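Quick one:
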Amino acid sequence: MRSIAILDGVNGDAERQSRALGAFLADGLTGDLATETLIFYHDERERLVSLAPTREVRLVRIEPRSPDQTTVILAGMAAEEEIALFLFAGGDRATDQAARLAGRTAGAVLTGALSAEVATGRLRVRKNVYSSHMTGRFALTAQPWCVSVDQTWEDARADSPLEHRILSESDTTGSAQVTPFEDTEFIARPSAGGLAESRFLVVAGQGVAGREGVERVAEAARRMGATFGVSRPVAMNAWAPMDRLVGVSGARTAPLACIVVGASGAPALFWGVEAAKLIAAVNPDEKAAIVGNADVAILDDGVTVIEELADIIADERRSD
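Output:
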C-alpha cells in the first residue's frame, strides 16, 4: 500500500511540519506502507527538499494561498494512483486540507492522530477525545484515509534522510485558478421580503470595528446578493437600522446559508440564525461561541474575508 506525506511549503512553517511528519512516520505509524513526501512550494525549493521526512520526494510548484488547487492535485493523485493514506501535519491548515480532500474523494478523515496502524482494509487510529481527558480508538475504512497528526508530534525528533531522490516535479503556476464555486448553484438574490424570508444572509457583529466596518460588510453582502443583518450591539450603537436586527430582539431567520462576521455568537443572536442550513463564522477568536456552533469557521479578520469573498462571488455571478 502507498501513502503520501504532505509538506505544505507555502505557509511558512515547513520546519514544524517536517518535525511532526518525520516523527510520526518513525514512531507513530505502523503497517506495510511505502511513503513518499509531496512538497507544495513556491520558492525555497532546495531548503524544502532538505526537510522532506522521506527519501522519495515529489515537487509541485503552486501559487501561494491556493488550498483549492492543492486539493484538486491531491484528489487527482488519489484517483489515478490508488494511494491509501494522505498524511498531514497538525494545525488548522492541515485539518482544513485533510477535510477538503476527504470530501472531494469520498474518503475518510481523522484529525489529531496520536498513532495509526494499517490493518486489513482499514486504518486504526488513536487520538485524544473529551478535551484530552480520554483516548479514543477509531477505524477508518473508506479510502483514501486523510489523516492529520496530533500537534504533540511537533516536539518529537526524527532524523531526515541523508539523501533525497526527486521522483517528479511539476509547475502549476500561471495555470487556471481553481474556484470552489465551479460546481455550485448560486442562491437567488433576496426578494422584497424581510430578514425572516432571506435565503442567503450575512450578519455583522460588534467585532467588525465600528460603523465603517458595518458599512463595508453591508456593501459586501449587497455585492454577493445576500440579505444584510446585524447583532444587537451593532443596532444599539446605531451603526445600522433596528430593522436589520437578528436575534431574540429582532428577526428569527432560516436561510440556506448564513455568514456571521465579527459576532461572538451570544445565545440571543444564535437563536436568530440557528435554523440556517449552513452557518459560516468569520472571527479571529477561536474561542468565540459562534466558532464552536458554526458548520464552517474562518479564523481571520471578518471584514477582509467577507470583502474578498464578495469579490469572488461577484466575478462568478458576472460570468455565470
